[in-house]
Amino acid sequence: MDKAEVMQWLERQGTRRTIGEMARYGIKAERAFGVPMGTLLSLKKRLGTDHALSLALWESGWYEARLLAALVGDPERVTRRQMNAWAAGFENWADCDTVCFKLFDRTPFAWEKAGQWAKSPREFVKRGGFALMACLALHDKAAPDKRFLAFLPLVETGARDERNFVKKGVSWALRAIGTRNVALNAAALAVARRLAGSDEAACRWVGKDAVRELAGPKVRARLARRAH
């Protein structure tokens, strides 16, 4: 399928009901067909990896086409320029997180961009930085602890941002780092507890959200099993 065929397919699959569900989850998109993720994943199986198609779909500007662009893109062909351009075009938490989770965290530049974007003044670029940290913590099994420890000062600074989707991204990064192993759990919990005791409301929210998970019995039991 080429871009035109994919766009026609997406239009046929869209429903007003799905657009309504997007709004309830805080997903605002200027142009959307209303196609659920499960349907996009079924199309991804047919399309496989097609980086040229991925770039064309992103350029369309349609929400579902951009999610599909992340699904069919080739991380080995992604450039820094592409990452910056796509991040600048993030419209909402969903396209941001999907691109980071399905494509960008597998590129050679993921670690670099996580650190850079976490300092951005732009809401969804900044969220993208913390989303990348979370995705790397979840997916890069071989990365040494020191790489994640280097993210924690950025997390602590980012927690001061009162914008809802930024602070949720910060919490996601902190929680993901703290569930990798016992050592990182201790380091992330120390940050979370400092934040939970802060005078700033955004910091307290991030800290309490992270402490609740990282000090919880499920995470502790899972980390104990991994340690043995």
Describe the structure.
- The protein is built from 15 helices and no strands.
- By secondary structure, it is mainly alpha-helical.
- The chain folds into two domains: 1-73, no CATH class; 97-228, Serine Threonine Protein Phosphatase 5, Tetratricopeptide repeat.
- Helix 3 (37-47) packs across helix 5 (63-72) and helix 4 (51-60) runs antiparallel to helix 5 (63-72).
- The longest helix is centred in the middle third of the chain and has 17 residues, at 123-139.
- The radius of gyration is 18 Å and the shape is globular.
How helix-rich are the residues, as a percent range?
over 70%
Please identify the top-level CATH class of the largest domain.
Mainly Alpha
* Tally of helical segments: 15
Based on the structure given, which CATH architecture of the largest domain is correct? Alpha Horseshoe
Largest sheet, in brief, is:
none
Q: What gross morphology would you assign?
A: globular
CATH topology type of the largest domain: Serine Threonine Protein Phosphatase 5, Tetratricopeptide repeat
List keywords for this structure.
Serine Threonine Protein Phosphatase 5, Tetratricopeptide repeat, 2 domains, 228 residues, 15 helices, mainly alpha
Secondary-structure blueprint of this entry?
Blueprint: H1 3-13, H2 16-24, H3 37-47, H4 51-60, H5 63-72, H6 80-88, H7 93-102, H8 110-117, H9 123-139, H10 145-149, H11 152-158, H12 164-177, H13 182-196, H14 201-214, H15 217-227
Helix pairs in contact: 3-5, 4-5, 5-7, 7-9, 8-9, 9-12, 11-12, 12-14, 13-14
